[in-house]
Amino acid sequence: MLPPFIVLDPILQDWLREDIGRGDRSTGGLFPDGNAPLGQAVWIAKADGVIAGLPIAARVFQLLDQNTSFVALVKDGQTVKVGEIIAEINGSLATLLMGERVALNLVMRLSGIASATAEYVSAIANINTNTNTNLVDTRKTIPGMRLLEKYATLVGGAINHRYGLDDAVMLKDNHIAAAGGITEAVRRVRQNIPFTTLIEVETESFEQVREAVKLNLDVIMLDNMPVEIMREAVAIIREHSPHTKIEASGNVTLSSISAIAEIGVDYISTSAMVTRSTWLDISMRIKQ
């Protein structure tokens, strides 16, 4: 789901202010009287990939001039090929030139994430056995970009993990160390959270898994475990706490994700779609 513009507008306005500064000297120099003629531009894909962020790019131009028309020729989540025209923009040439960089940067970044995500989702889907494993993202995002980067992973076919620390309890290694153990950490948080709050615990060994299955948890994460160890851990959880969801995480790559999915975990979480993705190259051309 696209975040509402009441949330996005202040972010987009900040980015426009950062880029425009005291004024667009290039465009202002071309049209010093402020009466730039109307024109049209097209966006062209310069690489194959999955598009994400076009409705947000449209909003960038409309914040500069509400009379600007941004017509997306593809939908978010659609795969495009090199040379394909993905959008047409009509409006004041000053608006087109002033909004170009912010809008393009946004869509190239989000499309790169969506494209990388689609690769990981495809790797799970192409394994030989039936699986209900879902790919999920993480909180490893650029500050200020989380809503949009997580939107891009959704467009690419993943589902979202926590948006923030207030979404759920997730007790990782440092929380466990601070409390003196998994059982004590869970006991403490259960005393201090709403009863509706999901609890997930990170485990790194059989010993921790055996302790965790006794605690009636919502999710147990298997972190940085070799595949064979993970397989045995999944069997322990399925036997002793069958209602508990299982998440695998840590050093997940395109070459390893299929083997992890074949084990039968419910979720595979990785930051790779965001942290290792490259921007999808897109260019804007003014039509003369």
Structure description:
The protein is α/β, with parallel strands linked by helices. It has helices at 5-20, 25-30, 54-64, 93-125, 146-156, 173-179, 182-190, 206-212, 227-240, 257-263, 272-275, and strands at residues 38-45, 49-50, 69-72, 79-80, 85-92, 134-136, 169-171, 199-203, 219-223, 245-249, 267-269, 282-287. Helix 1 (5-20) crosses helix 4, helix 3 (54-64) packs antiparallel against helix 4 (93-125) and helix 4 crosses helix 5 (146-156). Its EC number is 2.4.2.19. It holds the Pfam family QRPTase_N. It is an enzyme of class 2 (transferase). Belongs to the NadC/ModD family.
Keywords for this structure?
glycosyltransferase; four-stranded antiparallel β-sheet; nicotinate-nucleotide diphosphorylase (carboxylating) activity; 43% helix; pyridine nucleotide biosynthesis; elongated; 19% strand; 12 strands; alpha/beta; 288 residues; six-stranded parallel β-sheet; single chain
Concise structural overview:
This is nicotinate-nucleotide diphosphorylase (carboxylating). The chain has 288 residues and is an alpha/beta fold. 43% of the residues lie in helices and 19% in strands.
Protein topology:
Elements: H1 5-20, H2 25-30, E1 38-45, E2 49-50, H3 54-64, E3 69-72, E4 79-80, E5 85-92, H4 93-125, E6 134-136, H5 146-156, E7 169-171, H6 173-179, H7 182-190, E8 199-203, H8 206-212, E9 219-223, H9 227-240, E10 245-249, H10 257-263, E11 267-269, H11 272-275, E12 282-287
Parallel strand pairs: 6-11, 7-8, 8-9, 9-10, 10-11
Antiparallel strand pairs: 1-5, 1-12, 2-4, 3-5
Helix pairs in contact: 1-3, 1-4, 3-4, 4-5, 4-10, 6-7
Domain Quinolinate phosphoribosyl transferase N-terminal: 39-111
Keywords: Glycosyltransferase, Pyridine nucleotide biosynthesis, Transferase
Family: Belongs to the NadC/ModD family.
